[in-house]
Amino acid sequence: xxxxxxxxxxxxxxxxxxxRVEKILQxxxxxxxxxxxxxxxxxxxxxxxxxxxxxxxxxxxxxxxxLHALAARYLDHLRAxxxxxxxxxxxxxxxxxxxxxxxxxxxxxxxxxxxxxPIFFGAHASPSLAQxxxxxxxxxxxxxxxxxxxxxxxxxxxxxxxxxxISVALVEALLPLxxxxxxxxxxxxxxxTKRLLLLYLGPIIGDEAKNG
Length: 212
What we know:
With 212 residues, the protein is an all-alpha fold. The protein has helices at 15-34, 42-48, 53-59, 63-85, 95-112, 116-121, 127-151, 157-180, 183-205.
């Protein structure tokens, strides 16, 4: 499992140091999106973070450590998000509300962190990053499968796995389109994603609320 602190050369003990690390990570996230990982230098990160290169190296030994700290932070945020929305009671909501409960905060996360996709799936992504992303993906599959099992107990495990895999793949494929769309179109892409899943899943797990 990736951990943010394991990427730090020195863990900041004071608020000032914590704020500096925060600014370094924010600057790196912006530059990785704007310039790409390979073209981004630690000097550029320090300039964007309004700190000295020496201060940067106090906390991070190199650019790769910054990347891994940022990736660990993203994974922590996503796990917390999934803990909130992929709960047993989600299974019993009306399907439109169920989809909104999951997709809306996920779209907000992706919009707030445009560096997520290039960090985990870019050409520079290391095996450890790819493995961490895959482990989280499998955790999501298991949680959604549990929701489908509660909502549609007549489905076989094989059927559930197929429907869950397709549903998760649709979300993973379509939400990045919202990130890339003009701001006036982003909400439309998210709405169409939910509409598509409503049409797909309605006949499979039902539109109406279920009794727990």
